[in-house]
Amino acid sequence: MALLSVKNVGKHFDGNYVLTSIDLELEGGEVYQLIGPNGSGKTTLVNVIAGVLKPDTGTVHFDGHDITGKEPHEIYKYGLVRSFQIPQPFVNLNVNENLMTATTENPGDLYRNAPIRRRWLDDEKKLQKKADELLEMVNLAGVVDNLSSNLSGGQMKLLELGRIMMSGAKMIFMDEPIAGVNPTLAHEIFKKINHICREHKITFLIIEHRLDISFQYVDRVYATDQGKIIAEGTPDEILKNKAVIESYLGV
Predict the structure, then answer these.
(1) In degrees rounded to 5, what are phi and psi of residue 10?
(2) Of the candidates 59, 81, 73, which has an alpha carbon nearest to the alpha carbon of residue 2?
(3) Checking DSSP bridges between strand 57-62 and strand 4-13, what pairing results, if any?
(4) Whose CA is closest to 4, among 45, 53, 37?
(5) pTM value?
(6) What pLDDT is recorded for position 33?
(7) Does 106 have pLDDT greater than 70?
């Protein structure tokens, strides 16, 4: 059974269809990429799956759950989490504190438990250990005490990735994770994504325009145009696809 199943999904605004009869079947433990020209429906599709927008037609199932039309916070609890093109950390918290806010497993967050230290201390220690491991993984251990507002753009994207993993995500949507990032750090970000996918069996669906970098790391690509999926395949297959060349590459 597919981890994510999208069937006949459509979305319109003021009678104009942005998505038309979208079908997707994504297996677990892979890195997928969505490509397409601006206005082709990529972000709208991700927003519909993640609950930011409600579909007008069709269904969405994730990990055996019907999540069609559910609110983002409900979908988040199932383990499907999205990031945005511009990271939005808590700017007055340091790097470690940002990670600790992302967990849904801390009993100390409950009002009735907060005053009674013994009810949450052991769990807090376990969560801190998990945060320490994730900070090492995303190369932010050296800036753990820095306010997130003092991080570089690339570091903020790595922090966003760490926060998502702290939530216990099974699948992660990322919107242009290397936009505005220098090539060296862009490759590092994609290497981290690839490592996390392989080692932790977390699935990724990524919107990214820098194909020269991203196509070195993704497993399969879906190409969109005018609200439809026009091609699916490996990066090499997509680069040779005539429909993709005409719509996306413009030649």
Answers:
(1) -130, 150
(2) 59
(3) antiparallel
(4) 45
(5) 0.84
(6) 97
(7) no
Q: How open is the CA angle 135-95-112, to the nearest 5 degrees? A: 100
Tell me how crowded residue 194 is: count the other CB atoms within 10 A of its CB. 16
Count of C-beta atoms within a 10 Å radius of residue 94: 18
Q: Rounded to 5 degrees, what are φ and ψ at 207?
A: -95, 125
Q: Has residue 84 got a pLDDT over 80?
A: no
Rounded CA separation 56/67 (Å): 14
Q: At what angle do helices 153-166 and 183-200 cross, to 10 degrees?
A: 10
Q: 10 Å Cβ neighbour count for 64?
A: 10
Give me the residue label for tokens 């570091």: 155
CA distance 28 to 169: 12
The pLDDT value given to residue 108:
47
pLDDT band at 126 (very low <50, low <70, confident <90, very high): confident
- Strands of the 80-82 sheet, one edge to the other: 80-82, 171-175, 203-207, 31-35, 220-225, 228-233
Contacts of 203 (CB under 8 A, 6+ apart): 3, 4, 26, 27, 28, 29, 30, 31, 32, 170, 171, 172, 197
